[in-house]
UniProtKB/TrEMBL annotation, chains A, B:
<protein>
    <recommendedName>
        <fullName>UPF0284 protein Mtc_1562</fullName>
    </recommendedName>
</protein>
<keyword id="KW-0808">Transferase</keyword>
<dbReference type="InterPro" id="IPR003200">
    <property type="entry name" value="Nict_dMeBzImd_PRibTrfase"/>
</dbReference>
<dbReference type="InterPro" id="IPR002805">
    <property type="entry name" value="Nict_dMeBzImd_PRibTrfase_arc"/>
</dbReference>
<dbReference type="InterPro" id="IPR036087">
    <property type="entry name" value="Nict_dMeBzImd_PRibTrfase_sf"/>
</dbReference>
<dbReference type="GO" id="GO:0008939">
    <property type="term" value="F:nicotinate-nucleotide-dimethylbenzimidazole phosphoribosyltransferase activity"/>
</dbReference>
<keyword id="KW-0328">Glycosyltransferase</keyword>
<comment type="similarity">
    <text>Belongs to the UPF0284 family.</text>
</comment>
């Protein structure tokens, strides 16, 4: 797909992007020097067997957020000797993020919303440790504090940025996304995505239902309570960051998790209060087991959407080809930062090639 | 005092510095681009009434480390509307640090060794919350983990630095310094400095004695145990940073607290393993109520010392003149980073003037 658009008198080719809901108009705001913000969080929800593919083993899952941050910031893994890959060597989408960062002039900021393990990367800290298993119904009791802390950080980052691209790395984050959407009364049981080709929807839904029951939610609750009971720390941090960055365009870089954040935000502000768009990968946009657009439509929010039509179909590595078979799909803000880089003139193919190079270096492959 | 030295064929004036124990030779290594590292920590020892002047009130004392970091990094205070000053408007030495940072090309890194409150500044996190009151004898049970985490961070920082200047901001840190020195069997009761002109030596010594008793230490213990029982998280982090930065010259920027770290380190390594110096302010070096050199001599360590002969005697502000009367004296790496800036060609008077300007802006004074 290819779209052309005239900005400031110059014809710019947006090869590799698709736009929905006014995404093209929003894209016109992406100029100057923007900042990539990676929000890290862990939730004990990730301990539910079979719920996430993040991390080579359950013991390593809490390392996924810090390792993603290290990879994006340095191109290396520091905290562990192992690498941030799923068990069959399918790499984290962080390789795409790292590629986009290397190919453009983004500033980078890292935010610990609730890590179990701190990354060896300078970061802001807005939370106080991991979220609890959502089945408890007490997932993030301190969500309000996280929002408030993140607001200050968002203001600080926005003061030195022409726009923000906010991505996240949160194992089991699609389950908590389902959680808050259901807590707010949305019928979205089949709408959230997964890092696995066989989306464990019934497993996720039963975890959410247990959490809602234990939280005493059986109708519709407000967004803050939804996060506190069945959400994750990333959501609270991202909401605070957006609030603090008011006045500056913000791209929520992600799939169903960021769609859930957009829905939460839409219920906490007046229409048009924030200048927001959602940007993700083709792998999420085309996900047959979920529906990004279904979530947005279900919540009646009309947020601009930009899709980066990345492809690893021509890759020589099986680990990257797996993306074409429904593995991983999105995360670490990959789709959104790739879209922003493309809007700044970076070729989509260059991002794919650079990601492949980063992957081969990580694997020690030629 | 004025010292001249020939480096690389050029005569460089070190106006404003004094050298001891081979400090001049060490100074020759300070060239290229160095990094300033600020280690932040809090300890509940600061809650002992009368023990520290850091913070405008006991409730605000835990804010001192994050506010110092914010001031050095941005020139502003973010977390509180109040400012990081002692109760009678005597400013934090962070204004000197900020001045030196502004006037040279140092990279800056911030390390949370054990904060109660996170700064709105990107930082590494190597600890897990504040240290306990040393009277418990269980001040920093996780000191070993902090050292290990800090080692990774030190390695990371050193990989992009030609030298390191490590400063600290730790309320009640002179008391914990006394603690570890006494725990290691040194007779240094009257040797540690204070941020107050009337050094509460007996109060400090009685807190240490209570801690030693509760820890069951009544002879001489090893350095790690000393920190675990009656130290603070800053010490563990600084030791780890130095170990990780092995091979790169490191200035420990501080007075009696950094002298205590030097003593701890000397008992954990072989002679010459690290390329270390100590640098501080004239206010500490001339402190009649304490003896930096007494501590070093007592521990039989022959570390190079550099003193920045800063003076606020000519300042128009009473808050700065107070430094000449024995208030504050040192902290936030002020003496060491000022010395490094002077070694890089910045005039001492320029640092003093810039610090005064920062102070007047903070106070909203003309």
């Amino acid at each position: 797909m290819s779209v052309y658009r005239r900005i400031g008198g110059n014809l710019i080719a947006y090869d590799g992007l698709s736009f929905y809901n006014g995404g093209e108009e929003f894209a016109g705001k992406i100029k100057g020097r923007g900042s990539f913000v990676l929000v890290m969080a862990y939730t004990d929800t990730a301990l539910i067997p079979g719920i996430t593919a993040a991390g080579a083993s359950p013991e390593l899952t809490p390392y996924t957020p810090p390792l993603d941050a290290e990879l994006v910031h340095t191109g290396r893994i520091i905290t562990l000797d192992n690498i941030a890959m799923t068990s069959d060597a399918i790499p984290t989408p962080g390789i795409i993020t790292r590629a986009a960062i290397m190919l453009s002039d983004f500033r980078e900021f890292y935010v610990d919303a609730g890590n179990r393990i701190a990354p060896v990367v300078p970061h802001f800290r807005v939370g106080n440790g991991p979220g609890a298993d959502i089945r408890t119904g007490k997932a993030v009791p301190c969500a309000k504090d996280i929002i408030e802390n993140a607001r200050k950080v968002g203001r600080e980052i926005a003061s030195q940025s022409e726009y923000l691209v906010i991505g996240e790395t949160t194992p089991a984050g699609t389950t908590t996304a389902l959680g808050v959407l259901m807590a707010m009364g949305m019928d979205v049981n089949n709408y959230t995505s997964s890092s696995m080709p066989d989306n464990p929807l019934s497993l996720k839904a039963s975890a959410v239902k247990e959490g809602l029951k234990n939280a005493g939610i059986n109708g519709t609750c407000d967004p803050l309570k939804a996060i506190e009971c069945v959400g994750d720390p990333m959501m609270a941090a991202t909401i605070g960051l957006v609030q603090g960055a008011k006045g500056v365009p913000v791209i929520l870089a992600g799939g169903t998790q960021m769609a859930a954040v957009a829905v939460l935000l839409s219920k906490m502000c007046y229409p048009g209060e924030y200048d927001l768009a959602l940007a993700t990968t083709r792998w999420v946009a085309e996900d047959g087991s979920a529906s990004l657009f279904g979530i947005l439509k279900g919540a009646s929010i009309n947020i601009p959407v930009i899709v980066a039509n990345l492809s690893f179909a021509r890759s020589k590595y099986k680990g990257l080809q797996a993306y074409e078979k429904g593995y991983v799909k999105e995360g670490v803000g990959a789709g959104g930062i790739a879209a922003a880089a493309i809007l700044k003139g970076v070729k989509k193919e260059k991002i794919e090639e650079t990601a492949e190079l980063i992957y081969s270096k990580l694997m020690g492959q030629p």
